[in-house]
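call fold(seq) -> tokens
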Amino acid sequence: MNSSFVFIVSALALTAVVVLVLMWSLLRTRGTTQPNLVQANQQVYRQQLKDLEKEHAQGGLSPVDFEFARAELLGRMLEDTAQADAPDAIKPPRTLVSAMVLAVFLPVAAMSTYMWLGEVEGLNPAVASAEDKDKHPDLEAMAASLAHKLESDSGNAQRWVMLGRTYRALNQYDKALPAYQKALTLGADDDIALERAEVLAQHNGGDFKGEPWAVIRQVLAKNARHFSGLLLAGSASYAQGDYKTAIRYWQQARDQLEEGDEEIQGIEIALNKAREKAGEPMVASRPVIASPASPHVASSKAAPAAAVAAGAGVAGRVSVDPALNASISPSDVVFVYATPSDGQKMPLAILRKMAADLPFDFVLDDSTAMSPDRKLSSQAQVVLKVRISKTGEAMTRAGDWIGVIDSVAVGARNVRLVVNRQAP
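ret:
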């Protein structure tokens, strides 16, 4: 049954019930009488007499004063109650007229108020469907578009990855996993393999047992210093309550960073939280010497400069208001993304990291685009957002921690994006 039809029928039925109740209340009696004043006066005098007797018994009145006051009170009572009640006749109100006016006025007033203040367009199923679609970025359409293009270009690994990420953003992990797998068959990539392992864990309700852990171990077996592999291994261990193992993996990742690297603070916070959970003492941040062969260090330093130099991206640093540190866990997921300044909600570019990385530098450009047809470089201004999710879901949920900058010029660098409030 059409939901709009149900709404209209329900509203009319409720209005009819209210009108009937009010009409019955008006029509059930045509007149009334005034209350019985004699009985009321008698009750007052009886109470006053009891008060006099009580005061006399307690010694507050002498016998002479008591008898005098009692005689005076009885005299007034006889005088006031000697007359019988003679209630004034009360003319019956025009209840029938009032009821008829009410029966017409109330429904008309209710409908007029709804037409003025309500969402009349919401009664149109097509409009309601469109509004629902606006509430969720048009990822379904983008996924359909990518899938259609891949029918004739199935060898495009990048598009398969984008399709997987789009399905992941829709929480459709059963569709995302085959897309990631197809990308991996076209070319082995440890970063994509780790991303797929993380999606598989999400599909399994956050459980990394089995294949996700096997993939992490395979990546680390080939390169024990794989930075993303170590971070994910630590996050997986932390999520499973194995805090000592999480400390070991995160410490190995931390040891690769140079003194002053922006990612050290985030890892140190994660390490100390894991130490606290494991019952180990906190350790103050200390400088370390990085390996010159660390590929992560090189890429993290070169990417912002290259993208911003081309004028096609936005670069900056994400941090968290210190007052919120206790509310954020290292295993939380961080989304940094840019949306058009005209109010469209679908991201132009998006970056996904772990809260253990905070604070970190970021770059959003065409290489991080959600769709090859919608590029950040095509915009002059964007809205920059960061969101921290405990569930890893792409859609904003009440309780997520967020930060927003309403207008950022494409090509800007050194943007400071701070997580400072909670989503309603």
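Residues 30-35, 84-91, 125-137, 287-310 have pLDDT under 50 and may be disordered.
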